[in-house]
Amino acid sequence: MYWSKTLIPTLREAPAEAEIASHQLLLRAGLIRKLAGGVYTFLPLGLRALRKIERIIREEMDRAGALEVAMPALQPPEIWEQSGRAQTASDVLFKVKDSAGRQWFLSPTAEEVITTLAAGEINSYRQLPKNFYQVSVKFRDEIRPRFGLMRAKEFIMKDAYSFDTTDAGAMASYQKMYDAYARIFARCGLQSFPVEADTGVIGGSHSHEFMIPAATGENEVAYCEACGYAANIEKATSGVPATAPREIGAAVEKFATPGVVTIEALAKEPYKVAANRQIKTLVYILDSKPVLILIRGDDQLNETKLMARTGATAARPATPEEIFELLGAHPGSLGAVGSTFKSGAKTVYADERLRGANEMTTGANEDGFHFRNVSIERDITVTQWFDLRTVNAGEPCVKCAKPLKIRRAIEVGHVFKLGTKYSEKLNATFLDETGARKPAVMGCYGIGVTRTLQAVVEQSHDKDGIVWPLAVAPYTVCITPLSVVPGSPAFTLAEKIYTELTAQGVDVILDDRDDRPGVKFKDSELVGFPIRIGIGEKSLAK
RNA sequence: CGGAGCGUAGCUCAGCCUGGUAGAGCACUUGGUUUGGGACCAAGACGUCGCAGGUUCAAAUCCUGUCGCUCCGACCA
User: Do residues A441 and A206 make contact, with C-beta atoms less than 8 angstroms apart?
Assistant: First the structure.
């Protein structure tokens, strides 16, 4: 390609709309342009890099035995009703109506479609296992699109779905995808690492996310350098010891704490109750049912864990008004000692770290009062114990007890073992060797292709611009003749090299613009071609 | 949706507080000079000052509403 024939609208300054390096560079190097918030046009250069990533993905998916298909972006709501996700995923679904007034969903993912296909076409264990994939535009009504391609309303995703006869088979399919993902990101020039993950609204039992370390990432990951344990902070656990029991103390005693509504205030004079000797009482509404949650004063509730442990599909903190209605006190004075909701039985979930804790202090459900000498097992009726806390850096690794570290990362891929959740609801069953009808055991696997593109830029850039890894560079070689006069020695040689490299299948761009050398050098470095061949009189003379 | 900020030329921004003929740099067009690290000279083109309403003799500027964009939070590939 000759530079003057394509469109590479480089910008000298970063547009004000872009905050992070990769977003600024994608705009400045002329790879993408925004049409609306979270909606982008790919220019020729951006599309070339995207296609290279897609090609790597296809090669590795094919190598792993997956079959490429193309499913509709326009999907009938009925199958979403059938899977139950019309409700659970409602927030992210784009809903459109046709001229007859019939409603459609724009595909945010395709479990329902592929499972419907499998229900119709797969009848025998002899046809399994199968793994189908596609690379296509997905739509999600993101509440807040962010950072260019990082979180967009419309984006390109590779999604794959495996069907197996047994759980062990499904695990093997899962492992194949896991391995393929590691290869895909490595081939894209990315340093990625897999972490244990929560399964969220997709559902399922077993899941890993592939992360790219980046300060601008939207995820936090806890990891252990000693043994390799790594998990999304939403999922991570640590080996923190339970709260140390003390001598069995006196009976529960109420004492006045006028104006004290925070853990910190209670930890100070004159009360001096250390945060780790306090029980924090939170009120949450889980699927419209109120529950009390007990967490140690120095810990933070992990809402993802709360939803995962309780199976709730929606969780939110109760409002101060709801709390007063339920408990008769305001936040800051709440407790679970003998308390009941005014309507119905109370449900109390307590964090494992509080097991056996005594001589604790907690709110008295009366504004301005707390209880001391509380023994959680003696004085509080705990409905169920769960691991509900968020791990902190420095805590001992669950596997090897070495200190955990925490860092931010970009999620570029996610693999799930789904089990039979979708196959049962959508009747994707088969007959086994004995003639018994069984639901297929499924897995699903996603890669954010456009996000991966931006992750490459985020991970690989310098002060002058993008530094493309060889495998995904829009052009591998940029030839920069300093004279573009036809017939001049520099331009003649440039065209000769261009012809030879192109004939060998190398992606080459020749900067034939009649601009000063500095401009051409700066532009080539901004775009970040792996190799530049500069040809001028000085180099020719040598 | 809650909190914060911003909408003036293709891009970066000034002007707004204190109302009175809409500006700069870069980019663009033409001519000339220049040519190994974002050149220079001259001439030129480019604006419903996001939109709507109000106040005023007069609004980019003041007031109200509205739309859009960005950041923090809830959501995720």
Answer: no
E strand or H helix at A223, and its extent? Answer: strand A219-223
CA A414 – C1' B12 distance (Å)? 39
Task: Decide: CB of A406 under 7 A of nucleic strand B.
Answer: no
Q: Determine if residue A332 is left, alpha or beta; phi over 0 gives left, psi from -120 to 50 gives alpha, anything else beta.
A: left
Q: How far is CA A223 from CA A15, A121, A200, A233, A392, in A?
A: 36, 43, 21, 9, 11
The answer to whether the beta carbon of residue A446 comes closer than 7 angstroms to any atom of strand B is: yes
Residue A499 CB neighbour total at 10 angstroms: 12
Model's pTM, two decimal places? 0.94
- Residue range A107-129, pLDDT digits in tens: 999 999 999 999 999 999 999 99
Query: Tokens representing A153?
Result: 């309303």
Which of A461, A507, A498, A506 lies closest to A479 in space, CA to CA? A498
The torsion angles phi and psi of A305, rounded to 5 degrees, stand at -65, -40
- Measured from the CB, is A30 under 7 Å from any atom of strand B? no
Half-sphere exposure of A469 (CA within 13 A, CB side): 22
What per-residue confidence (pLDDT) applies to A340?
Answer: 65
φ, ψ at A253 (rounded to 5°) = -130, 130
pLDDT, tens digit (0-9, with 9 covering 90-100), for A204-233: 668 999 999 999 998 999 999 999 999 999
ipTM over the 0.90 cut-off: yes
Measured from the CB, is A523 under 7 Å from any atom of strand B?
yes
Non-local CB neighbours of A68 within 8 Å, separated by 6+ positions: A58, A61, A62, A132, A133, A134, A135
If you search the block for the tokens 């090897």, which residue do you land on?
Answer: A400
Handedness of CA A281, A287, A288, A289 (dihedral sign): negative
Helix or strand (DSSP H, E) at A182: helix A167-187
Band of residue A531 on the pLDDT scale cut at 50, 70, 90: very high
Interatomic CA distance for residues A235 and A204, integer angstroms: 14
